[in-house]
Automatic annotation (TrEMBL):
Species: Paraburkholderia caballeronis
Protein name as annotated: DUF4440 domain-containing protein
Record Pfam families: DUF4440 (PF14534)
Domain DUF4440, first and last residues per copy: 10-117
């Protein structure tokens, strides 16, 4: 039963983080991401927490929508969960809207009693 609650909580945090990315909500992202997060985008660009948040809040990276298509959450011990999933990303670019599917792996870990994103790596997938 405890594992089911953790899985539900992690799913909620993932939705909350995606919503904060779309909304450009820097304070929420600050709470949801570990200070030590390693964030690797689909293009291979690696960012720190501050670089990631700054790009979103400054409008250099604009997410229009993030739609979770599938998501598996695997608790690993009491303080870590590995999330693997697929999502459809819609971003605003200078040339217009970009729409592409991704496969991703995220690691959520307990820090001072709070779950925070510790690592993210995404790969752009072919449109099916």
């Amino acid at each position: 039963m405890a594992a089911a609650k953790v899985i539900d909580a992690i799913r909620g945090l993932e939705r909350e983080r995606f919503r904060a990315m779309v909304d450009g909500d820097g304070p929420s992202l600050d709470m949801l991401l570990s200070d030590h997060v390693i964030y690797v985008h689909t293009n291979g660009k690696r960012e720190t927490k501050q670089q990631f948040i700054d790009a979103i809040t400054a409008g250099r990276r604009r997410y229009r929508q993030i739609e979770i298509q599938s998501q598996d959450v695997l608790p690993v011990g009491r303080e870590t969960c590995v999330v693997s999933g697929r999502a459809l990303i819609e971003m605003e670019a200078k040339s217009g809207a970009l729409l592409f599917p991704i496969a991703y792996t995220a690691i959520q870990a307990q820090e001072d009693g709070h779950w925070r994103l510790l690592a993210w790596q995404a790969t752009r997938c072919a449109l099916e």
